[in-house]
Amino acid sequence: MSTINVAIAAVRQQLERLRPAERPGEQSRGDGSIVPRDSIAANALAAVVAIMTFLATVTSGGVSMVIGAANEWQSEVAREMTIQVRPTPGRDIDAEVGKAQALARAASGVVDVRAYSREESDRLLEPWLGTGLSLDDLPVPRMIAVRIARGATVDTAALRQVLARDIVGASLDDHRGWIDRMRRMARAAIAGGFGVFGLVLAATILSVAFATRGAMSSNRPIIEVLHYVGAKQAYIASQFQRHFLGLGLKGGALGGGAALLSLALAGPISDLFVGTAGEAEASALFGGFSMGFTGFMLVVGEVILIAAITALTSRLVVIHTLRRID
Fold first, then answer.
1. Which strand (E) or helix (H) includes residue 50?
2. Model confidence over 279-307: pLDDT tens digits?
3. Which of 52, 82, 177, 280 has an alpha carbon 20 to 30 Å from 321's alpha carbon atom?
4. Which pairs with CB-CB distance under 8 Å and at least 24 residues apart come from 263-268?
């Protein structure tokens, strides 16, 4: 009986600190709570939520930039084709290139045709063969860049057939292989982003579950007496849910703000490396380091989502624990 008396005295003392409207069975109008608001565990959980939100936001931001860059690549590559004219014994290569240009310009949907000179074609091989080499005796093919009008469609099969019929050694590449690779890369980026985001949510749920059980253990006498004297599970769960919702919003806002700041600073920092090989590669991979209004709304949505998951997880853990008490 002494243990029950101590528990009842503790719950009475706690209820005296609550406003009358927050007692079991009445509508809440105050800000009292049976869960301690400022504690080491609460601050630690807010820090964990902030870190998880930061990771989720940076991941989604990086994925969105990669997808945007991939879509831009696909749009640009889809509007270009390449004609190769290989040297053939007994034929004038310049005349063959001129004929290929004329055939390409005659195709419906083509807006520009540009033939590379012999010197330009040789320079295309320098990254692999190096400089200072004489390529006069090598059958280096001549390249012709064909640009398609935006929104237009070219009958590549017909153009390829005409080139093969009229020009010996000519071939057409519509870059379909590169487009397929870009699509696979975009899908892989999306899958990786979802995987990381799922791991972040799983870690957040586990952290909240452990924190909720710890809060219930530290207030177990009060919770048991409230439960035995008739307090509904929804009332007790709502106290924890409101508490952890606040922690989730606090941590999510800190993590999301830090992520937005990091992404905002990425642009000015990248300007310091303009003209370098690393800058060119980063620009090709991520495009511009700007998320825009859509990216900002995505961050806000992730903060709200993580806060909601934090509150829901706490509620489910409390209800499950109370049912075990029964």
1. helix 40-78
2. 555 555 555 555 667 777 888 888 888 88
3. 52
4. 263/58, 263/61, 263/289, 263/291, 263/295
Interatomic CA distance for residues 108 and 106, integer angstroms: 6
Give the chain's radius of gyration (CA, Å).
Answer: 33
CA end-to-end span of the chain, whole Å?
A: 20
For residue 195, CA distances in Å to 206, 248, 288, 296 come to 17, 21, 24, 21
Q: Is residue 175 within 8 Å of 82, Cβ to Cβ? A: yes
d(CA 144, CA 86) in angstroms, rounded, equals: 11
Helix (H, G, I), strand (E, B) or coil at 161: helix
Q: Tokens 């071939």, residue?
A: 171
Residue-wise pLDDT for 167-216, tens only, equals 888 888 887 777 777 788 778 888 888 898 889 889 989 988 888 888 88
Of 305, 296, 300, 295, give the one whose Cα is nearest residue 67.
295
